Amino acid sequence: MYEKLKKILKWNYYQNKKFYKSLINKDDLCFDIGANVGTKSKLFLSLNARVIAFEPQSTCIEHLKKIKHPQFSYFKWGVGAINGVQKLQLANHIEVATFSQNFIDFFKNENLQWNQNENVTIKKIDTLIDEFGIPDYCKIDVEGYEYNILSHLNHQIPIIEFEFTEAFFSETIKCIKLLDTSNRVYNYNLNECPKFELESWVPAKEIITIFKKLPKTRLHGNIFVKQCPI
Q: In sequence order, which residues have a C-beta less than 8 Å from that of residue 153 and are 6 or more positions away?
C-alpha cells in the first residue's frame, strides 16, 4: 500500500511539473503570493525558476525556512489593497487563512473554525514589483482576497494564476474583466488538476460565458491569464 501511494505521489508530481513547464521557463521570476507551506514554490524551483514567496502566517514561515535553494527567498508579508498592517484571520487548519470576512462567513462550519488572528505586514502588489521587478509568472492564492490584490495592479505581468471558488464567483468575473486587454487570453483548471479545461486559450468575453455555465456547487480551481505578443 505504501509503495503504491509513493508511485501515485510521484506520478502527480510529474504531471504537475509537466503542466507548469509549459508556463514557466528557466530563470523566470515567479511571485508565489499566498505561498502557505511552499508547495508551489518548490514546484517552480524544480523548473529552475527564481521564486519569491509571500506568506503572512507565522506557522507557514517555519515551513518556508526549510526550503534551502539559492533561487528562493520569502517574506512574511500579506499582499492586498494597502501598504500597512492588517489583521489576518486564522482557521484551525494551516492551509486556510484570510483577510476576507466574506470568506469566513461562507466557509465557517463545525470542521473549519476561525478563532485566532495575527497582525501582519501587508503590501500592494505594485510595491512588490517596485522592489523586486515585474515577475514573469505570478500565482495568487489568498482565500477570497484576489480582487483586492489585482485591483491595485498597474503593471503588465506575462502570466497570472489566481484561485477561484463558488463563494467568490462574482469576484472572479470582476477579476477577469479587470485584467482584460486586447492581448490577454484565458484558460482554467479545476481542483488543482494539472490539465487545462480548454483546448485553446480564449478572450475574456468567452471565458466569462463559459464560467457562467459551470455548476457552482463545490466549484474550485485556478484561472490563468496570459499576455500574448502584440
A: 125, 126
pLDDT digits (tens, 9 = 90+) for 142-196: 988 999 999 999 999 999 999 999 888 999 999 999 999 989 999 999 999 999 9
Task: Say what the pTM is.
Answer: 0.93
Are 74 and 53 spatial neighbours (Cβ–Cβ below 8 Å)? yes
Label residue 6 exposed, middle or buried (CB < 10 Å: 0-12, 13-18, 19+): exposed
Residue 48 in this model has a pLDDT that exceeds 80: yes
Quick one: pLDDT at residue 14?
A: 87
- Three state DSSP letters for the chain: CHHHHHHHHHHHHHHHHHHHHCCCCCCCEEEEECCCCCHHHHHHHCCCCEEEEECCCHHHHHHHCCCCCCCEEEECEEECCCCEEEEEEEECCCCCEECCHHHHHHHCCCCCCEEEEEEEEEECHHHHHHHHCCCCEEEECCCCCHHHHHCCCCCCCCEEEEEEEHHHHHHHHHHHHHHCCCCEEEEEEECCCCCCCCCCCECHHHHHHHHHCCCCCCCEEEEEEEECCC
